[in-house]
Amino acid sequence: MSKVALITGxxxxxxxxxxxxxxxxxxxxxxxxxxxxxxxxxxxxxxxAENVECLCVQGDVSSFEECERFVxxxxxxxxxxxxxVNNAGITKDMLLMRMKEEDFRQVIDINLVGTxxxxxxxxxxxxxxxxxxxxxxxxxxxxxxxxxxxxxxASKAGIIGFTKSLAKEVASRNILVNAIAPGFIETSxxxxxxxxxxxxxxxxxxxxxxGTAEDVANVVKFLTSEESSYxxxxxxxxxxxxxx
Length: 244
Ligand code: NAP
What we know:
The protein has helices at residues 13-24, 38-48, 64-78, 101-129, 141-144, 150-170, 188-191, 195-204, 213-223; strands at 4-7, 28-33, 54-58, 83-86, 132-137, 175-182, 235-238. The protein is an alpha/beta fold. The protein has a single domain, classed as NAD(P)-binding Rossmann-like Domain (Rossmann fold, 3-Layer(aba) Sandwich). It has a seven-stranded parallel sheet with strand order 3-2-1-4-5-6-7, with helices on both faces. Strand 2, helix 2 (38-48) and strand 3 form a beta-alpha-beta unit. The longest helix is centred in the middle third of the chain and has 29 residues, at 101-129. The mean pLDDT is 97. The chain binds NADP nicotinamide-adenine-dinucleotide phosphate (NAP). NADP nicotinamide-adenine-dinucleotide phosphate is lined by residues 8-9, 11-15, 32, 34-35, 60-62, 87-90, 110, 114, 137, 139, 182, 184-185, 187-190.
């Protein structure tokens, strides 16, 4: 029986590349999405082209009830969940002086509370199986901070504390919990920036380029492999040396 990976927010960008990378490893994929659209249809097609099953499970990660529902749907369909990747995330950038309470709260609700909601729903299945890998997508900004991103940085720093605490709680059950802190990655999230700004940022990165979604997916592949079986509670930086 093939292993099962649930990836949140996997219709595009980093989540989609993670799903494709794990599909190439033979994982059955549970692809979480919020709204049905063309991106979802394309992602499903690309995953199935790897000759694995792709179950699309709808749900907004900021809703605990929806997470419980789609996790149950996944577990009942496949009988197990071996890997969870908490990837869904948003930005709502604004200097604190002008940030609305609603924009602070929404980013925390999706990025941080969403990570709790899905993990809390998945963990009983992993505890029972005495096996599991959880990978949370944080950000370099959660470590360094960034002007205009108090909401986002707080959510990503919160994910790191969450990762380390949970890693300590579940290590004895053979469940490994790690985080990845990507730097500046080419996706629709960073596409909103002007080309001149992107060039400036790239120049300041020691490896002199933006990262790709695949750069992040490669590290997820490692963190789900046997080669990483002695690693838990860690934050792996995938940022071209941006933060040292
Ligand atoms: P993206 O292209 O904007 O993709 C984000 C994905 O998350 C989309 O599929 C989106 O679906 C989904 N999503 C958003 N809110 C959701 C919700 N409430 N419930 C379920 N799904 C939801 O962004 P990305 O760059 O791939 O980012 C992926 C992750 O990497 C995020 O956690 C982000 O913070 C992190 N990250 C990105 C970078 C970067 O430079 N790109 C750097 C560091 C960390 P919809 O179509 O419904 O919006």
